[in-house]
């Protein structure tokens, strides 16, 4: 048996999913889609059941990747039972999706979640009345307290029925549905989609298009508007029949602080600053421990094995890649994810997006782009993955360029390790300043030149609530797995490649070839080119390799301040690391991946050369 | 009571209400319809028992939801018919109005729809032919006639704390998501917050939705009472 959880974003699906399945979760990707679907096996009364957490959506009629995916899932009968999760405090809006899903006539149950919040707001939901109106079993749950969650499985497996609700559509729409059914023989839910131009049967789309045009002329409204209005009105009728509101004193609304420019924007800046600061402090502390532990327990024993030199080199590179992956993944990325999941689960990120809309418009984006930007300070790879939030190609392209330029935690390590340590704190901050100025200039140019349309921000504010430790951890865990899945293979392959490169003695050749650039243009010592090359692999390796090649950890004694400064700024700016290039390629295609790489290389060398000329 | 008389009363009350923004008293209604007050009194009692109106102690006559619906529909029929008779058939406007008064009680919704359609299409083709003058005339008329051709305000013209009713949504790209979030024509929304760049935080169907300025400019609304 397969049970799929369907619902609006923020209806509490993930929490229910987590309570039903525990941590044995798999993340599946559907072919041709970057949307993740989480699956978890459970055993109920000796029967193996799979729970599927579908992505949160508002409607089945849209064309976003999530909506298309869930629609295909429903039409292809991906699950035996659909458990529709509805937010009790927003029942009317949530029923809109329910009545749509019911049209696909799967076996359903309705899980009315967050009943505890509803009770606090003085809302009473008549379970029996709702049950008889929807004609499916109804369970009132409070996932945050675990209330009634244990009833979901037995009811879903034993009592799920095909929902008997039918939206009364406008009589022109009903007539169109009948005529399409009669002439082409397709069922009502397919015809409804076809009237809105969705589907893959050209004959049906053609016929539906002609009817839709006629209806639109008569109503002065698009068919989608008529259908949506009918469904919303129907959802309103059901809600009116089952929900009683008792007078309740309004609790203090934090939003009166959070969504106002003042003090909202200072609060936003402070929260983001604290997030980055704590990730950096905790991350570097943990990285020290992870790297040291890895060195003493794995790498040192390995070097004493005295394998043949080639194998020694390959094995060593593999281990260094693992060390690099875990050394950055867990301390920085994981702790950043925990912070981010916390912010998301409190519902704060939606407020941040609203407040940031104005500033983001200046750089050709809109409020929702703040999420990838913030993630970019932690690690570029997940930031690129989250670009899916932005709806048009134009917005994704601009944001991709900016996100690759944002100093991620690894680049922060370079800045701190080289400039702050040997040149001075103020100089370290000046690098940030240069990067941000370049970022804004890039954005201004891209905003003018990138073709495509601006979509704009449409975000539903999630309810402010206390985050659940369990859910935050589970969410971060799934994300870190995804990160490792993308970054690890790339790290290992590149590391072995570079190891062989050194083994065959090509580094000197490379240094000679690169000398015109490194020595003449940038005024750096010859071995800096190898360090920069390693920086492509993982940014803070640039710093570590430089120390190894210079033969001393006290870089100040072998390079001048200007050289160190130039080196840092070049390695911070130029080329996103290989994992970033890989994920750029996967999310946005080869063209953008190549363009951003070349652009950042050019930018790094250009700024480096200017600094070299000006300060020499 | 004759159905046509009932419709006349409801129409008159609704018109009075629209014009003066308060419900009429029995005396005002009677003089407006050219009837003696003594005749109006028993009729009102009948309308009260039919659930169309409520009469307060001060004799102010308020329409119920049902009465308002009927009143509105009769007004719309009257306007469409009058427009059809005068503009398309070329009758003089006072005769057209009298004629419309009689016809409005018998005509079906379907006919009115089609007539409205005809007027709009004719206006459009005329404005193609005749240029500027006709555009103004056409826009004004379709606006009055059906209320759904969107000459209303953009939601970004309103300020924080105001309540508005959605009239229409232009543009295709963002429309579907807005519809799904409950921003459908006829929906009453509250503007909870407005930022200086025109981004809005709206309360719709009990949920808060944040919209960027490029989205809000595509939403046509009217002030909610």
Task: Give, in spatial order, the strands making up the sheet with the most strands of chain B.
Answer: 3-8-4-5-6-7
Beta-strand fraction estimate of chain A:
5-15%
Order of helices and strands of chain B: HHHEEHHHHEEHEEEHE
- Main β-sheet of chain B: number of strands, strand sense, barrel status? 6 strands, antiparallel
- Span between N and C termini of chain A? 71 Å
> Which structural category fits the helices and strands of chain A?
alpha/beta
Q: Helix count of chain B, per DSSP?
A: 9
- Shape type of chain A: elongated
Mean pLDDT of chain B: 80
Gyration radius of chain B, rounded: 21 Å
CATH fold description of the largest domain in chain B: Arc Repressor Mutant, subunit A
Return the domain count of chain B.
2
Number of strands of chain B: 8
Structural class of chain B: alpha+beta
Set down the secondary structure blueprint.
The complex is a heterodimer of chains A (616) and B (225).
Chain A: E1 2-7, H1 13-21, E2 26-29, E3 36-44, E4 47-53, H2 65-75, E5 81-87, H3 91-103, E6 107-113, H4 115-120, E7 123-125, H5 127-134, E8 138-140, H6 152-158, E9 161-162, H7 171-184, H8 188-195, H9 202-219, H10 223-242, E10 243-245, H11 255-258, H12 261-303, H13 309-346, H14 348-362, H15 370-378, H16 380-385, H17 393-405, H18 409-422, H19 425-449, E11 458-460, H20 469-503, H21 506-521, H22 528-537, H23 539-550, H24 561-573, H25 578-588, H26 590-615
Parallel strand pairs in A: 1-4, 1-5, 5-6, 6-8
Antiparallel strand pairs in A: 2-3, 3-4, 6-9, 7-10
Chain B: H1 3-20, H2 26-33, H3 37-50, E1 53-55, E2 61-63, H4 65-88, H5 93-103, H6 109-130, H7 132-146, E3 153-154, E4 163-169, H8 175-180, E5 188-194, E6 200-204, E7 207-211, H9 213-216, E8 219-223
Antiparallel strand pairs in B: 1-2, 3-8, 4-5, 4-8, 5-6, 6-7
Helix pairs in contact in B: 1-4, 2-3, 4-5, 4-6, 6-7
């Amino acid at each position: 048996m397969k049970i799929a959880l369907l619902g609006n974003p923020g209806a509490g699906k993930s929490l229910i999913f987590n309570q039903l399945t525990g941590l044995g979760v798999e993340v599946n990707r559907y072919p041709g889609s970057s949307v993740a679907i989480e699956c978890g096996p459970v055993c109920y009364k000796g029967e193996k059941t799979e729970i599927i957490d579908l992505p949160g959506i508002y409607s089945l009629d849209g064309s976003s990747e999530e909506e298309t995916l869930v629609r295909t899932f429903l039409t292809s009968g991906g699950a035996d039972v659909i458990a529709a999760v509805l937010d009790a405090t927003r029942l009317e809006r949530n029923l809109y999706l329910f009545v749509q899903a019911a049209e696909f006539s799967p076996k359903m149950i309705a899980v009315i979640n967050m009943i505890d919040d509803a009770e606090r707001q003085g809302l009473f939901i008549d379970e029996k009345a709702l049950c008889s109106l929807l004609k499916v079993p109804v369970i009132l749950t409070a996932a945050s307290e675990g209330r009634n969650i244990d009833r979901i499985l037995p009811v879903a497996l034993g009592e799920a029925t095909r929902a008997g609700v039918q939206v009364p559509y406008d009589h022109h729409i009903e007539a169109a549905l009948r005529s399409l059914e009669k002439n082409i023989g397709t069922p009502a839910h397919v015809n409804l989609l076809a009237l809105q131009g969705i589907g893959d049967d050209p004959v049906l789309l053609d016929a539906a298009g002609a009817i839709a045009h006629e209806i639109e002329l008569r109503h002065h409204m698009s068919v989608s508007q008529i259908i949506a209005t009918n469904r919303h009105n129907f959802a309103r009728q059901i809600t009116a029949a089952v929900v009683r509101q008792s007078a309740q004193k309004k609790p203090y609304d934090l939003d009166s602080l959070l969504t106002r420019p003042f003090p909202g924007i200072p609060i936003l800046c402070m929260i983001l600053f604290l997030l980055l600061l704590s990730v950096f402090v905790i991350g570097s502390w943990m990285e020290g421990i992870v790297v040291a532990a890895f060195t003493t327990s794995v790498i040192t024993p390995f070097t004493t094995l005295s394998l043949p030199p080639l194998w020694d080199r390959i094995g060593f590179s593999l281990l260094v890649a693992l060390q690099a992956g875990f050394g950055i993944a867990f301390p920085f990325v994981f702790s950043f994810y925990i912070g981010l999941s916390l912010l998301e689960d409190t519902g704060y990120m939606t407020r941040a997006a609203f407040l940031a809309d104005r500033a983001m418009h200046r750089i050709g984006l809109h409020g929702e782009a703040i999420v990838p930007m913030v993630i970019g300070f932690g690690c570029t790879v997940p930031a690129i993955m989250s670009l899916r939030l932005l709806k048009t190609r134009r917005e994704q392209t601009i944001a991709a360029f900016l996100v690759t330029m944002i100093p991620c935690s690894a680049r922060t390590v370079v800045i701190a390790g080289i400039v702050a340590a040997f040149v001075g704190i103020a100089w370290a901050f000046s690098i940030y300043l240069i990067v941000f100025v370049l970022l804004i200039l890039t954005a201004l140019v891209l905003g003018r030149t990138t073709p495509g349309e601006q979509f704009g921000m449409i975000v539903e504010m999630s309810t402010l609530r206390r985050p659940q430790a369990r859910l935050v951890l589970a969410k971060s865990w799934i994300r870190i797995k995804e990160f490792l899945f993308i970054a690890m293979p790339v790290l290992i392959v590149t590391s072995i490649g570079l190891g062989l490169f050194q083994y065959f003695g090509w580094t000197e050749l490379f240094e000679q070839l690169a000398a015109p650039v490194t020595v003449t243009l940038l005024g750096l010592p010859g071995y800096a080119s190898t360090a920069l090359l390693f920086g492509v692999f993982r940014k803070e390796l640039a710093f570590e390799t430089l120390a190894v090649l210079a033969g001393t950890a006290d870089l100040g004694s072998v390079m001048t301040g200007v050289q160190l400064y130039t080196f840092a700024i070049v390695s911070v700016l130029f080329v996103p690391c290989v994992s970033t290039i890989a994920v750029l390629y996967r999310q946005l295609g080869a063209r953008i991946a190549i363009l951003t790489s070349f652009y950042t290389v050019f930018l790094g060398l250009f700024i480096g050369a200017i600094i070299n000329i000006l300060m020499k | 009571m004759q159905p046509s008389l009932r419709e006349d009363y409801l129409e008159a009350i609704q018109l009075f209400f629209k014009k003066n923004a308060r419900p009429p008293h029995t005396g005002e209604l009677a003089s407006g319809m050219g009837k003696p007050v003594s005749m109006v009194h028993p009729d009102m009692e009948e309308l009260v028992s039919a659930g169309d109106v409520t009469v307060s102690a001060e004799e102010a006559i308020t329409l119920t939801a049902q009465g308002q619906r009927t009143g509105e529909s009769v007004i719309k029929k009257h306007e469409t018919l009058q427009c059809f008779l005068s503009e398309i058939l070329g009758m003089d406007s006072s005769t057209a109005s009298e004629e419309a008064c009689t016809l409005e009680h018998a005509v079906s919704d379907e006919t009115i729809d089609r007539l409205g359609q005809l007027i709009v299409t004719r206006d459009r083709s005329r404005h193609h032919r005749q240029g500027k003058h006709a555009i103004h005339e056409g826009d004004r008329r379709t606006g009055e006639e059906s209320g759904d051709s969107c000459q209303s305000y953009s939601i970004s013209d309103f300020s924080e704390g105001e309540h508005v009713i959605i009239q229409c949504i232009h543009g295709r790209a963002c429309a579907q998501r807005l519809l799904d979030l409950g921003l459908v024509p006829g929906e009453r929304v509250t503007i909870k917050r407005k930022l200086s760049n025109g981004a809005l935080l709206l309360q719709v169907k009990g949920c808060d939705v944040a919209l960027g300025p490029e989205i809000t400019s595509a939403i046509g609304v009217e002030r909610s009472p």
